Amino acid sequence: MVLFRFHLLFYLGVISFSFYSNASVVQDAKAFKSINLVAPDASIRASFMAFGATVTNLWVKDKKGEFRDIILGFDNHTLYQTQTDGHPYFGPVVGRYANRIRNGTFTIPISKDATGPNKFFVPRNENNLDSLHGGTDGFDQRIWETTKVSSNSVTFTLLDPDGMEGFPGTVITTVTYILESQATWKISMDAIATQKTPIMLSGHHYWNLEAYQESQDLVGHHAQFQSSKFIGTDGHLIPTGQLLDVQNTPLDFRKAKSIGASIPATTGEQFCGTGCVGFDNCWVFDEVDEKKAAFSMWSVNSGIKVSISTNQPALQVYTCNSIFNNTNPIPRKTTQGGAQNVYTDHSCVVIEAESIIDAINNPEFGADQIYGPGRPYKWESSYVFSNI
C-alpha cells in the first residue's frame, strides 16, 4: 500500500487528506472494521466499512416482522479487495466513472468514439476492451477516510489525485449514508474537481429481498419502473449510441412483473451481451423526480419491498447472470445460509442509479458528465423499505 499526503487549498480553507492506493493487499484492519448504524426507530440496521465506502449488511423487517439481511457480501471483509477471491463489486461506491468506458478512452470536450483532441486513457480492465467502474484501482478499491459517525449516519471522504487511473484533475468525493425512521436509507454523494473531468458515481448493491430463505431464484421478485427506453449495447455491453424502445421486449417493466419469470425470454436476444441470458441493461427514466419512487422491487415471498427515488436519469439492472464460477464459487454470508451454500446465477439483483452510461463517448445522449471548478457533482438516492 502506498500512502500519500495532500494539502489542498480547495474552494474554502485548507483540507488535509490521506490518499491510499490499493497497489497491494491491504493490511490496515481498520479499513475493514464494521461501522454499525441503526435508525432512530430501529426499523432498519446496516453495517459499513471504510474500504470502498462499502455497505456490508442491511437488515429490514419481512412481512412477519422478522429482520433479514438483504445485501449480498462476504463475512470475511478482506475478501472484498481481490479479484482472485471473486471480487464482484459487492456494495461499494464505484467511480471515478461507473460502468463502462469504450476502449478505455475519452476526450474533453467529449467526442464520438474519442476522436477529438485532449485524449485520455483509462486502464482496460474488462476483456482488454473497455474500462469498468473506474479502472483497475477504482473507488471501490480505496480506503476512504471516515470523517463523521453518529448512531444512524456515517460519512466517508476520498481524495482521488490528478492522473490516477488516467483521469485528469484531483477529485474530492464525499458519501454520506443515513438510516432514518420508517425504514429509510438515504445516500448522498458529492464531488468537486480541480480540472474538467468526467465523474459518474453509483452505489453497486446486490439485493436478494428474501435473504435466500424461500427460494434461490428471482421468480418471486417483482419490479416496476417507468422507462420506455434503454441503452443499446454491443456484445460486450458497450453502448452503441442508440436509445431503444422497450415495447414488445422483456425489458418492459412499466407494468409490474416477475423479474425471474422474465429472464427466459431474454434467451437469444443478447440483451446482456453475447451468449448471455438475463438482464444487464441501462434504462433511461421517462421522468426524473426525486420526490417520487422511480423504481420499485418486492418479493412476494418475504413481503419486503424497496422503493427508490433518485436525482439520476438512468438505472442499471443486473440479474447476477455470471456471479457463479464453478472453480471459484462465492460463499454466502452466514445471514444468508452460510458458507456451505454459494451465490448462484439469477439469484440476486444489482441496482445502480446513475447517469447515462458511456455518455462521454456518445454525445448524442445529451448528458453532460464533465465536472470541474464551478460545477460540482451531486448524486442522491433514497431507499424506502416496506411490506406488501
Can you offer a commentary on this structure?
With 388 residues, this protein is mainly β. The radius of gyration is 20 Å and the shape is globular. The chain has one helix at 259-262, and strands at 2-9, 14-21, 35-38, 44-49, 54-61, 67-69, 93-94, 100-102, 105-107, 119-121, 130-132, 145-149, 153-160, 171-180, 184-193, 197-198, 202-203, 205-207, 221-225, 229-233, 239-245, 257-258, 280-284, 295-299, 304-310, 314-318, 349-354, 370-371, 377-387. The strands form 8 sheets. It has a 9-stranded antiparallel β-sheet. A 6-stranded antiparallel β-sheet has the order 18-27-26-23-20-21, with no helix packed on it. A 4-stranded antiparallel β-sheet has the order 3-4-5-6, with no helix packed on it. It is built from 1 helix and 29 strands. It has a single domain, classed as Distorted Sandwich (Beta-galactosidase, Chain A, domain 5). The model is unreliable at 1-14 (pLDDT under 50).
